[in-house]
Write a structure and sequence with these properties.
- With about 210 residues, the chain is an all-alpha fold.
- It has one domain (about 55-200).
- Helices cover about 65% and strands about 0% of the residues.
- The chain starts with about 55 loop residues before the first helix and ends with a helix.
């Protein structure tokens, strides 16, 4: 049996059997795997929301700001009694050297005033800084506040029992110590610890 030659008037491939087997459509590249929790929503992983301040933290922040104001008040009072400071400097220098010159006394007085202003302002700034950072829920700030409070208590114990301490200055120092102790109690309450833990978690990605 001979094959029938193709009709020259028909296009190429006419009346020919189809190519065996259907060809699969070109596949697309696999899509990048997505998180089932966010699939279809287009959302990206989000940080957990920052917790609200509990009453203990809010009160501690207010008391620390009061402490900052108390430091400024103590500084102002010390500057109003600056004449007594000059007498104390002169007395101390004369006790060390009976022939001390007036210029040395004036220099010692200037240095004493400088330290007085410096420590007064530093104390106010530290109170305000601790209020800010503990209000944000920084765990390290609670530890730093504890160290500062301990130093404050020790400072009052050593300087407050000395001779020649002004009564009003001593009272202001004692009020500052009481504030520091109350603040520490508030910062270390159970709800405060939960606030610090939640605030730290909110600053980290899942």
């Amino acid at each position: 049996m001979t094959a029938t030659p193709p009709d020259p008037d028909q296009p190429f491939g006419a009346n020919q059997p189809p190519y065996p087997g259907a060809q699969p459509a070109a596949g697309s590249y696999g899509s990048y795997p997505t998180d089932p929790a966010t699939a279809g929503s287009g959302a990206s992983p989000q940080r957990p929301s920052a917790p609200e301040q509990p009453a203990s933290i809010a009160m501690a922040v207010k008391l620390m700001l009061v402490g900052a104001g108390l430091s400024v008040l103590s500084l102002i009072y010390s500057l109003t009694t600056i004449g007594d400071l000059k007498d104390d400097v002169r007395e101390q220098l004369l006790k060390d050297d009976a022939n001390v010159s007036q210029s040395t006394i004036d220099a010692g007085y200037a240095v004493a005033i400088g330290f007085l202003i410096l420590f007064g302002l530093v104390g106010a700034v530290l109170w305000a800084w601790m209020a800010w950072k503990n209000g944000q829920g920084r765990s390290w700030a609670r530890v730093v506040a504890t160290v500062f409070a301990a130093l404050n208590v020790l400072g009052v114990l050593f300087t407050g029992t000395g001779a020649g301490v002004d009564t009003i200055s001593l009272v202001l120092s004692i009020i500052g110590v009481v504030l520091a102790i109350v603040v520490l109690v508030l910062l270390w309450r159970k709800e405060s610890s939960a606030f610090y833990a939640g605030a730290e978690a909110s600053r980290k990605l899942y």
